[in-house]
Design goal:
The protein has 260 residues and is an alpha+beta fold. It has helices at residues 4-10, 24-36, 55-64, 69-73, 85-93, 103-126, 141-147, 191-210, 213-221, 227-231, 239-255; strands at residues 47-52, 76-83, 130-133, 154-163.
Length: 260
């Protein structure tokens, strides 16, 4: 096994994969270890993991994840679900009061699922596999839930693709540690401190996106002149799309009885 600090600092999102299959026993071992090593609210284990390996099933997930090629290339797609259905059925069988079909329940289950998801990622990476989180899960939650036949009070919260890397991308830098750590209480940065915090990101992030000819052309066509503008533009994280999908999420939480 790899030293944890080395493992953390070697992490990269892998988007190109070899077709080599992953031993099912390894997948089960990684998932079992991840669950055993994850904190769980009340030890209620309010999550489920859906493994997708069959190509005919993956093709639909590829569509739901905005047709990102890595979904088809990776031999394994893993969907992590906030799941109170199993627990609530157990409560019913034991004559207990129903619970967790509420917003607090959703938060608890979602966080339990994310904790396990990150453990799973570390486990796969420790065995030489690559992973990439699929942010598109949040934009296609309703469709993914329907496709995976998820029951009431059970929703997908994140997805990863897994496989043996067919690329070796450089590790992306993070903001300076000072941007994250606050002693005793939150300290609001000054404009000057923000400029210093994002100075390196502005240069390196901009250079990375502009190194792709197609992306460069789109950026220039939209009149984007900074990394910050790019992040909230129509070609990245469009605020209008986020507002629309936020409304979809609220409706889905109501439909799945996480909201009244």
């Amino acid at each position: 096994m790899t030293d944890l600090s080395i493992l953390f600092n070697h992490h990269r999102s892998i988007r190109r994969y070899k077709p080599d299959p992953i031993d099912p026993a390894l997948v089960e071992r990684v998932c079992g270890d991840a669950i055993a090593g994850a904190s769980s609210s009340g030890n209620l284990n309010s999550l489920s993991i859906v493994l997708t390996r069959a190509q005919e099933r993956t093709r639909k997930l590829h569509e739901l994840h905005f047709e990102q090629t890595m979904v088809l290339e990776a031999p394994l797609v893993v969907t992590f679900c906030a799941d109170w259905f199993r627990t609530r059925q157990w409560l019913r069988l034991r004559g207990a009061r129903d619970n967790f079909n509420n917003l607090l329940g959703y938060h608890v289950a979602a966080f339990d699922a994310i904790i396990v998801a990150q453990n799973v990622c570390l486990g796969f990476e420790a065995h030489g596999l690559g992973i990439c989180y699929m942010g598109t899960t949040l934009h296609s939650m309703s469709e993914i839930a329907e496709y995976l036949d998820l029951p009431d009070t059970c929703l997908p919260v994140t997805t990863i693709v897994v496989g043996y890397p067919a690329e070796d991308p450089p590790k992306r830098d993070r903001l300076p540690l000072s941007a994250f750590l606050h002693d005793e209480k939150y300290r609001r940065p000054t404009d000057e401190e923000l400029e210093a915090t994002y100075a390196q990101r502005e240069v390196r992030g901009w250079a990375r996106y502009m190194s792709y000819p197609e992306m460069k052309a789109e950026i220039e066509a939209h009149g984007i002149t900074s990394l910050a503008q790019f992040y909230t533009s129509e070609i990245k994280y469009d605020p209008d799309v986020f507002q629309r999908d936020s409304a979809k999420l609220r409706a889905l939480l109501e439909e799945k009885h996480f909201l009244p």
